[in-house]
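Collaboration report, partner site 2.

Our partner group contributed sequences for two proteins of shared interest, and the home lab folded both. The records are reproduced in the order in which they were received, starting with the first partner submission.
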Amino acid sequence: MQNPIRSWGYEGDVKLDVNEWVLLGTNWTFQDLRNMKYTAKQGVAKKAIVPNIPRFFMNYLAEFHIGDLFGKEDFLKVWWSANYTDEYFYGWKISSRQSRKIKASFTQDVGVEYSIWDNKLGWSFEVDNITDSESFDKFGESKPGRSFATKIRYSFK
C-alpha cells in the first residue's frame, strides 16, 4: 500500500564561534507535506497540502559570553534570538480562495545569565517576545504576548 502522505524538504543549521566571546547561529526548515491519495469522503484532493503544519520556519541566535569577569570561575552570557514561522493553512487547502490561515509570526527574545563557583550557582532572566508581537499556536489561537521569567539554579555536583 502506498503511503498517502508524501513529504520532502530541507533544513539547515549553522553555528559560528566568531571569537572566544561571540556565538552566532541560525537554522531553517522548509517542508512540503502533501496528500497523495484522493479521499472523496473527506473532500481532500490529491496533492493537497497537509494542514496545521508550517511549511517554512527559521530561528536566529546571537550570544555574547565571557568568563572570569568579576572573579575566578564566574560566567556571564547575554543572548538574543529571533523566531519566524511562515503562514500556513488551518484546514485542507482545497481552494485558491481559501482564507482560513494561521498568520505568519516573528518574535524576538533576550536574556542574561550569570553563574559563579564554576557554574554551581546561577541566575538567569529572560524576556520572551520582547516586541510584544502577535503570534499564534497551531490552532490559530493567539499566544501570550511579552513575558518575563527569572530562575535561580544550584547544582549539587
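Second partner submission, folded after the first:
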Amino acid sequence: MNITFTLRDLLQLILFLLGIGVLGYIIAILNKVYKIVKDTTNIVESNSKELDSALKRLPEITDNVENITRKVDEIVFNVKDDLTDVVKNVNDITSKVDNVTNVIDDTTKKIGDTVDVVVDSIVDTTVGISDTLKDVTLYVEILKEILDVIKSVFKK
C-alpha cells in the first residue's frame, strides 16, 4: 500500500493546521473579551446608582467648572496690571539696592585707604619719635660726659 503526497497536499495540510491554530487563538481572544465585557457589565450593574447620580450631576459640575474658569480669568485680568507694577517696583528696588551696594563698596574702599594712610602716618610718627628719643638720649649722654669733664676739672 503506497500513499503518495503531492506538494499541494502537503501545503493544504500545513494551511489546515495553521487555520486550526489561528481559530484556537481567535477563540481564546474572544473568551478574554467575553470575560472583560462580563466584568464590565457586573461593575456597571453594581454601581448603577452611583453612575446615574454622577451622570445627573454632570451638568452642575460642568457649570461649576465654567464659573471657576471665568472667575480665574477675571482675577488674572485684574491682577495683570498690578503684577506689571510690582515687577517694575521690584526692578527699581533691585537697581537701588545695587546702587547702595556700590556706594557701600566705594565707601569701604575709601575707609580702607584712609586707615592705611593713618597707619602709615602713625608708623612714620613713631619712627620719628623713636629717632628723636635716640637723639635726646645721645645729647643727654654727651651732656653728662661734658658735665663729668667739667666736674673733674673743678675737682682738681
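Feedback sent to the partner group on the second submission included the following. The chain has a mean pLDDT of 87. Residues 47-155 form one domain.
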